[in-house]
Every structure is written in C-alpha cells, then in structure tokens.
Amino acid sequence: MHLSNDFITARAHTNIALIKYWGKKNDDLIIPNNNSLSLTLNEFYTETSVKFDNSLSKDLVLLDDHDISDSNQIINFLDIIRTKANINASAYVKSYNHVPTSAGLASSASGFAALAAAGSKAAGLQLSLTEMSKLARRGSGSATRSIFGGFSEWIKGNTDNDSYGKSIQDPVAMDINMIAIILDKKPKKISSRIGMKRSVETSPYYNAWTKQTEIDLIKAKEAIKSNNFKALGQVAESNSMRMHALTMSADPSFMYFNQDSIEVINTVKNLRENGIDCYFTMDAGPNVKIICQSADIKIIKNKLANKFDENQMVVSKPGRGIEFI
Predict the structure, then answer these.
(1) From CA 37, how far away is CA 137, in angstroms rounded?
(2) Please, are residues 156 and 150 in contact by the beta-carbon 8 Å criterion?
C-alpha cells in the first residue's frame, strides 16, 4: 500500500439529525437500532490532516493544537485504518474543530468523518463514499452521515458491511435553514454513548420509540421529496421530543435540557402561534437548533435577541459532503 509523503487534509461538516438515532444493537461496531435522517450544515465543520510515517514511534494526535494522543477512541480508529490498509506505520494527526466539542452540536460526526476520509487516503486506500461512510461509523455513529451533503440517511443494517449512510438529496431543493442557539459550549455531563445505553436498557418506552421512528422516517422522506417544509419541521420536532422522553424515562433519569433550552423551545412555539413557520430540534446537549425558512431568520433572531447574544445564534444553510483540501 502506497503511503502519502505529505499530509492528506479533509473537511467534513456536522450533521443534525431530523430523525434521531438513539441506541445501538451492537456497541462495538456501532450498529443502531433504527435508521436516521439528517441535514448536513455548512457553518460547523472539522478539518483534519493525516500522515502515516514509519519514523514515528507512536501515534501523535493534536486536536485544536492540544495533544490527545492518549485517546483510545482515536487510536482504535487509526488501528482499523491500518488493518484495512495492511500497514503498521504510526500516524500524525492534526485536527481543528470549527464547532464546540461534545456540546450536542455533532462535533464527533464531523471529526470522525474527516478522520475517515483523510486517514484512509493517507494510508493508501481508495474508498468509495459508501465505504468511507462505513469506516466513519466505527468512530461515531452519526459520522456515517457527515460523509454526505444535504439530506442523508443512515441505513441501520445488521453488520459492519450493511450499516452505512447514503445521500437522500444533495443539493437540497427546499428552503431550509438551521439557527443553532449555542447555550453551553461545555462538554455534556452524560455522553451520548452512556445516555443511549441507559435509555435502551431502562426506559419502558424504548420499543415504542423505535417503532414510531420508522413511521417518522417515512414522513420525513415524503416531506423532502414533495418539498414540504412544514411537514418536515413537524416530524423533526416531534421525533426530537420523543428521543428526549427516553432520557427522562430512563432509570436513573437524566436530561440534556437546561433552563435556556426551555426558553428557546417556548419562544419557537410562541412564534409559531403568531404565524412564523419554525420548529426546533435538540440532540444530546442543551443547544437548540431552530428549523426555519430564509424569510423568517431575521424575525426569529430579533425575538431571541431579548434573551440571547448575537454570537450565540449561528445561522446555517445546508452543507456539502466530504471534501479534500
């Protein structure tokens, strides 16, 4: 296998799930219990450079110029690449997150998608987007969708070979934006992995969630196909709240909401009651994403400006898939 002499750099954007993935049937391979659907965003992304170098005695991994070479998750992921490429060389990885880490803004999705793309190419592999998606999944489940731009779906599958992301629509035809309300940049107290496991094992509503999510997915795909913003917003909001109901019904219960999250949710509902067509979604963290159309961005931001600073509100349009730069 031919190793690159130079760093290979890839950029991957975060994605926000409109139909959520919450819970695994296989923790090691990261095989989910349900399909999911997301929108890739242009404002949040990770750029990662990788070089495999036989002169290195061990892997060197820098994230935002901080040494995280002791991260088992990343070293294990690099081992997967080495096995696929049949090489033994250590890696030099430099990664920059243009998104708060571990705050429910999908930094792990963009991070492992970028690492999968740059790492595989640096190791001499020539992977298709589907193969790259399967590889990215081994680092973070949602990374399987960040290989693709626009709307994408993660097919749950049952094995390492049939669980992968695919493009649903790119470029996006719909007028759709997300306003990310960044309420807390600190890493969450309960990680997604721990939260999922607890929800699967202890929430009495988990089986109902997976059945309902199958229905929600069909509705979302129909809304995208027919360019129906309202229908997509409605199903995304209800699916998000159902996911959070699992965390609150787990034992012991936990929640990712904080007081400001509730305030944003109530503001969205108030705006809707007054004729502004907008919806919210939340992942594993307190930050709220508002789904809206271009003409309503200014109105929504003005309404939120009473409570939140301008720099807490980041407007994002649909983003592109994996890029080598």
Answers:
(1) 14
(2) no
Q: Phi and psi (nearest 5°) for 292?
A: -150, 170
- Structural domain for 255, as ranges: 1-325
Please count the structural domains in the chain.
1
d(CA 101, CA 64): 10
Residue 295 CB-density burial (10 A; 0-12 exposed, 13-18 middle, 19+ buried)? exposed
Read off the CATH number of the domain in which 120 is found.
Answer: 3.30.230.10
Query: What are 166's two structure tokens?
Result: 């695919």
Q: Output the pTM of the full model.
A: 0.95
Tallying the residues shown for the chain, one arrives at 325
Q: How do residues 222-270 score in pLDDT, each as one tens digit?
A: 999 999 999 999 999 999 999 999 999 999 999 999 999 999 999 999 9
> What's the CA gap between 177 and 152, in Å, rounded?
16
74, 94 contact by CB (below 8 A): no
- Given a cut of 80, whether residue 141 has pLDDT beyond it is yes
Tokens of 44: 């949040």
